[in-house]
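Before relying on records like the one below, remember that each one covers exactly one chain. Contacts with other chains, cofactors or solvent are not represented anywhere in the record.
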Amino acid sequence: MKLFRQIGAVTAMNFRSLPQRASTSAVIVIGIAGVVAVLVSVLAMSTGLIRTMENAGRDDRAIVLRNGSIAETSSALDRNSARAVEDATGIKHNAQGEPILSAEGMRILSLRTKKDDSEINVVQRGVGPKVNEVRPELRIIEGRMFKPAVTEVIVGKQARAQFKGLNIGDVIHARNANWTVVGVFETNGDTHESTIFTDIETLNSVDKRGAYQSVTVLLESKAAFQTFKDSLLSNPTLAVDVIRERDYYRQQSKTMSTIISVIAYVVGGIMAVGAIFAALNTMYSAVSTR
């Protein structure tokens, strides 16, 4: 009982002295709260990036890249290779008996944000005529689909919300061409909503290139992936890598999320050490004045 009375007395004394040390206590609380807030916010950013990238993939879609490429940006597939992909087994065919796939390429556009007018790089992706069949989640929510052989684009709703000059009727001024925005699309909140789509042949013509960077294929089923992959890898005329779409975007997000996590823990660690020293300094100052 004596022990509990002593604990109670010490606790009551600390509570009574709070008004005299409110400012010093607030410094400690605010410092620690700042460390936690920074760490949580950066880790939340990393988690959000991973989820957004993973939502872009489906298990019944596959991406074909040049052998040894780790991303679309470092890949190049000539037209013969793209045509050879059409003949692979395991690809789903539409009612007309045509393989459902989209030969694609990309370039970078510089746009300005609505928030602070800073210049940010945005992906302009060229897609094939069967993009709606390959990606049935793509829906035009305003305007219309772009026309082939015309410098028209559709923009993701997240891109339009973030960047200037992406409303319907606006013109994006870029090297070699001016692109007119004719529609806005959504794709269930995945990473494509932050990009711009156009016709791949028009994009290649503007950029004066004849190759693609990847081919995205809709498979007959999830289980057909291995059949499709074996069919391509057994073709001696092809030098390609085949990866399930969900796995591709998971790999792309892994590197970035790792970098963000390292930054979060390094910055959070430095702030935590600073908060500890600040708390100790405040405590010693409070003790020395008594």
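The beta strands are 61-66, 101-112, 119-127, 139-143, 152-156, 171-174, 177-186, 196-199, 214-218, 240-244.
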